[in-house]
Each structure stands twice: as C-alpha cells, then as structure tokens.
Amino acid sequence: MFLIDFLSKEIALKNEADVQHYAKNTLESALFNYDVHQHKVGIPKIDTAFPSKASEHGKGRPDLLLCSKDTNYPVCIWENKDPSISVSIALTEAKFYIEGLFRNLPKEPSLPRIAVGFNGRELVSEFYTNELKWVQIKNKGNVAKDCFFNSAVIRNGISNHGAFLAEKGWAAASDLRELLPKLKNIYRYIPALTQGRKPIDFTIALLTLRMLVERNPSWGSWSEQPSFAVGVADNDAAVRERFKTLTDRILSDETLNKKYGEIFNFKERNDGDEISFSFVLTLNSIPLKFDNFSKIFSLLDFLPPLEHSDFDIFGEVYQSIGDNATKKALGQFFTGRHVISSILPILMKRSGLDEDESSVKSIKVCDPACGTGGFLTELFRIFKSSFNFNAKELKRLSKNAFYGFDLSHSNASRASVNMYFAGDGFSKMEGGRDSLKDDFIDEYEDFFDIVVTNPPYGKSSHGRAEEAFLSLVINIIKPGGWGVMVLPTGVLENPRSINSRFNLLKHCWVSDSISLPKHTFAPYTQQKTAIVIFRKRKKPLPVLDNDINGLLSQIKNDRVGYFIVDNDGYANSDKRYPTNVKNQNGELLHNDLSQWVDVNGNFQNSLIYDALINQIPVANRLSEFGKPLGNKYLSMSYDDCFNPIHRDLALLPDIYLRKEHEEISFDDYQARVAIVDDYLNDKTDILDGKFAGELNELTSLPVIHGKDTEYKPKLVKDLFKIEKGSQGFTEEIIYSNFDSNGIDVYGGGSKPTGYKVRIDTINNKGVKIKTFDAPAVIVSMDGSSGSLQVIRSGKFTANHHAAVLKPLDESFDLDWFVQSVEVSLKKEASNQEGSATLTKERLENQVVNIPSPIQKVSFIGDTRRRLLRILGRFS
To answer: What's the predicted TM-score (pTM) here?
Structure first.
C-alpha cells in the first residue's frame, strides 16, 4: 500500500502538541517509513534558508521535515495545528516555507515540493510545480485528502502536475505498454527516430536516465529536472539541456560510466555490425521549438517509479518501438519473454531449485550467447519471487550469480540494462566475447550450475553454430547442473546431427523436449525451433563414441517428456497479435504457455506446466481456426523412443506425437490399404472426396513395424552408386535440344521436367550430357530437396539439380526404399530457409533401416507399385 489513510478514528487529539506527536510517530512507523526531523534537517544550507514567519531576515523553523529513508534530502514540509484551527492555515504555513526555500536556493536540487497541513482532524497537501505554482495532489482524478504517501515512492511518484502515479508502487509492464506507443507517435515527427534501431536505443537511454535519477536523490526528483536548466529559452530547450547534463554526469563518473556508459554512447567493435549510437548526438539532432522534448518529458513524467520495477524493459521497448525490419534484424538476439517465462518454471521444478533457497543463494547462471539478456533477467525475477530474500541477499545474488557473454558489444549493453532494472547487478556481462573459443571453455569448464541460452544458428567458423553451442553448454555445466537451450528442430531430428544428440545423451539426461510454433520468432524468422531441458550426469556414460546400442542399454529406463506448443499466445502469423480467447471457465483456448485465472479468481497453471510437471493428460484441442491439433503431450522412456526405428536418437516431439502425419504402423497400413480395395469394389464410401489424398499418403509415408521386427541399418552409399546429373545442362540447353522422341530429363522437381532431349545433347561447356539406364532412383538435390522418383525402364538424363541412384543389387526394392526414406531425406534441409539444398555427403550418409524378414520389404514395395498405378488414373 503506497497511498495510506492518515487519520485515526480511535485517537482524540486535544492540542497541537498531541497533533505533532501523533504525526511524527505515524510518519516514522513502518507503514510510512520516513525519517522525520523537527525544525532542521541537518543540511546547513537548507536549514538556514527557511524564511521566518515573524521577521524579514529571521530564520524559519518548520514543524516537521520528511526525508525518505536513509537520505538527508527533505521531500515534504509538514505543519501541524491545534484541532480547533483550520487546516488551511497549517497548509499555508508549509507552503510559505517551501516558497521561501526556492527563493533563497534557486536551482538547488532535491528541495521539498510537497506541503502538508494537519490539525488532527483533517490533512491537506499540495505540490509545488516547476512553474512555481501550487496544485492539489490527485489520485485517479480525485484530490488526495486525509491520506499520505509511503516514503518509497513520494520523491518520484508525483508528476509535475501533481498527479500521484504510484498507487501500486513501481511501474508495471502495462504502464510501459501504455506509454511506448505514445512515444513512438512523437518519434514519427522526428526524422532521427522514425526507423531502425535508434528509436529503441534512444528509448532505453531515456528510461535508464529516469531510473538513475530515481536512484540518486541528490540529483533531484524526475519531475523537477527541467527547472535546473540554466540559460535556456523555453521548456523544450530546458528538457534537452537537462538530459544532456545528466548524461554528462553519468559518463564522467567512473563508477556510473562503467555500469551504464555503453547505454548512452557505444559503437559496435568486433562482429562487423555497424550499430553505433550516441544519446547526446541524437538529442542534438532533434529540432527545438516543436515541443518534442516537452512532450517526451511529459510522457515519462506520468510513468510510475521505475527503480524497483520487475519486468523486462528492453523486451517491452523492442516489441513496442521497433518496426518490423528492425525486429527482424534484432530478432536473432531476442528471445520472446513469454516463452522464457513459461519454460523457466519447468526448469525450477525439475531441478528442485523452487524449494532450495540455500542453493539459489550461491548459484552461478550463464548465458554464453546472452543477446539482450532475457533468460538471465527472467531467471533473476523468478528467484526473487520464489524466496523472501532481504535486500542484502538480493544484492549478493545479483552481484555474484549471473554471467552473460555475447559477440556483440551492443547486445551485452542491452543485457546490462535489463539486469540493472531487474536487480542492479550481475557478476559479468561481457561483449566482444566468442564463447565458442577454447579459452572460454578452459576458463569456465564445469563452472555453472545452470546454463540457459538461445544461441545463434547456421554455419560458423566452428561448424554448425547451434551444435557447437550445444557442446559448449554441456562442457561448462557442472556435473549435476542443468541446461535449457532453444535449438533448430534439425538438431533434434536430422540424421546429420546424430553425433550431437549422441554426445548430449551420453553426458546428460534430457528431461523435456518442447516443440515451438514456427512463428514464435517472427518476423525475424519462421524457422521451426524446439527447447530442450537437460541435466548433466555426474559422469559421462561409459560408452564409446557412435556406439548407439551401448548408449541405449545405459539410458533405456530414463524418461523424457515431449510437448508440442501449437499456440504461444500470439497469432501464428507475422502479425503476432495476442490470442486471448477464453472458455467459460476463463481458460485460454489458444495459449499453451501462460498461466490463467479462473472464474473464481484463482491462478491456474499453464497447459505446458501441468502436462510436463504434473503429468496431466492434455485433452483434444482445436487451433484458432477450429481444426483438431492432434496429440500434444507424451511421457515415455528412451527405450520406447528409440526402438524399434528411431535409432538415430531423434528427440523432436513431433515425431512421437504427430507421427500419424509422418509415418504409419504396419497394422494401420494394412487396414488402410484394405479400405482402399473395398472402396474400389464399391464396398464402402468412406473415401469419397478423399481417395486421391489417401493414395498419396499410403504411397509416401514410411511404414513402421513392431518391436518384434529387427532392423539392419545401412547407409545409402552402401546400397547405391550415386552420381550427380550433368553440370551446365541449363534450361536454355534443354530447350534448344528438345526432341519429342528423345529421352526424359529430370531435375530438382518432384516430377519429370516434361522435357525430352536428344541423347547426344552437348552442355554449355561443350561436353556431352550424361545418360543413365533404368532401374534407378532420381533424388532432387535442390528445389524440391529430398524428393525421390523411381525410374522403371529406359534411358534418361538429369541436370545438376538431381542425383541418380543406381542399385548395387538389382533385386533391391526401389519402391520400398523411396517410401521408407523420402520423408527423412526431405528433412535434411529442414533447418535452412529459402531454397533448401541436399548435399551429396548427406545423401550418402542417410541411414536406411531395412526390416527383416525381407518379405516385409516386398509387400510394401508391391503395394506401393499397385497403388501408384491406381493413382495414375486420377492424375
């Protein structure tokens, strides 16, 4: 409570001495928490500047001077009177002292601006504005009468217009969400702030400036800052000059500059990014005489105090101020805070830290690719809300627990902002640091209790960056420690990443694997991602590298929780508007991640938390378009995961929860083929309107047999001779050599190109094109990457977009091969955007699991050929 009733109905005050005693004791109580001084505050220049009520040159002696706890700067002059005397007389005397103080000490910061009159029956107060006018203090438009303010918010909780803004204490995310669009609207008329990253950095600097004013009482309150500017023409210039003066004060102070300098003045140095920003230069670029500064200051002046706010400042600014192009550019450094805040409670519960205060007090947390610091700041907030730490313990935690590293200096700067707003500290936040270098591992191996990160993806000097970071995280976690990583889904499913998964499972128990919607990081990317939560084993399992059987025998009884997030609380589109539709009980229908409040006002766990932690089955749910979503949650042993077919150690939830879209059991396959036959024989009409679609599925989905079936793994290069099509065999060459009686041309599509060319065609390099004899399989290497076609007879040719697979054993069933391998081959480029490609190396090393007995292969191959002939009649 920050605005508190001051009068007591139980106490009858008889005279001014009683009123004085009651006021002093009440103000010093824990409820109000003031340091109360009688007549003098202990600062000579202030104590000697009060005017006398009795003589022109005498010194005044106010009844009470109120200071916020642990400061010497008075915020209020309080005059008491006998209950029989009008309270307005007491107020007038308090105002007299303040007016005289401002006359005698012009431009002095931190003079009291609140005057209070109290007579034991009534309490009235007024505020002295920058324009030296008295206004009534109002809360929600009503005059604040017979009540007073907690000392924690009085200095910065009242605007220059006398509005009390801190009814709930500190600013909340909702306050910033109301403010930021209004700021952005002002920026529309300021050329320097219309687009790009500068509006974000400028706003962060403004908010940091306000926070630092709040933390330094000697600088004066935020609302009075323009009144300190000297030699300016108007309020607009006063605001700008004061912003510049405060910035100079920060940058010239060694301690403040070390903490906050890069927020106001930084230039990217190491990673090639040309980000540069100077707050002062930006201020100078904004023209005066258009009231831009006055408008900006006025908006910030109506913001509740920021000093102890507990939300992600940068995240809010990023979402509200950034345009789509900027969000896309910065998106690689920004993890949606709604995702982080839903996943970290699962980590807390899995690790037992939610009930282990002593461990949290000494914990060390790292994000080796911290970006803007979302994981670190959110985990700090969870620590603070989970335990009743005192101020000293919180300070120790914030100073010793959190380590963030990023290649980008500006990102580390932004992460610093977030950490200072969250708790004023961290152990280390370092920009220009490549965490993947050996010296980093040497310094921090087995050092951290928790590592949380969303690393960069794609090619790097260390190989695939995401896989290199996964290895790094495993190395720097202490044995028994925990990791949380956002990864492209390819790391969890693609055969080429099997070594990374093997290493992860050898060293860690993966407790949870969570698939995210593809729009989670829009507009930056629509790449599918997943989150893994894992615990490092006390010792790595005693198995040789690549010994999958040995690994599986060690981990078969470990369990993993799989969950598919279909809705993260925002639309599954680039628009990303909130999806807040609820059912009659108040449950969010299209938000798997957020807590919700039921009709009785009780908080309920998120869908994902109840599933993974409380193991509550998830009922059938519909998408925002009313479509069934399919299975969302499953807890299973590794033995059930990887046997009989997924011996590539796939950990993607979709494989096990939505496998009906990517594979089919042998029993289901037989049953569905029987229905097709019945439909053709007019025994059922169940496939009306769906017949062609059913044939497409039955000829493309891999068929999975039961645990009684043994599989013999082979690589594609062990089964086929592989040869790429002709280079320089361009569309122009194909067109100019067209011959209706020639041989078919294959390329990067899922079907023949439709062209036929002469068998003696010469490519654009003067070399005769390659020709091939059936039987063979055509593989699309780009375009429709991973698509397969069986060529049953005759001669044909192919360009460089395709590869030709000639079976080493002519009895090998090509139709079974295509149906069994095509889905996984198409995934080989699933972690690339744009036009996906399939390299020859990946093709050669694709695993083919051949079931035994061989009759199972023949049955599926024969059935596919028959169904394809039927399908051909409908094409």
So the answer is: 0.72
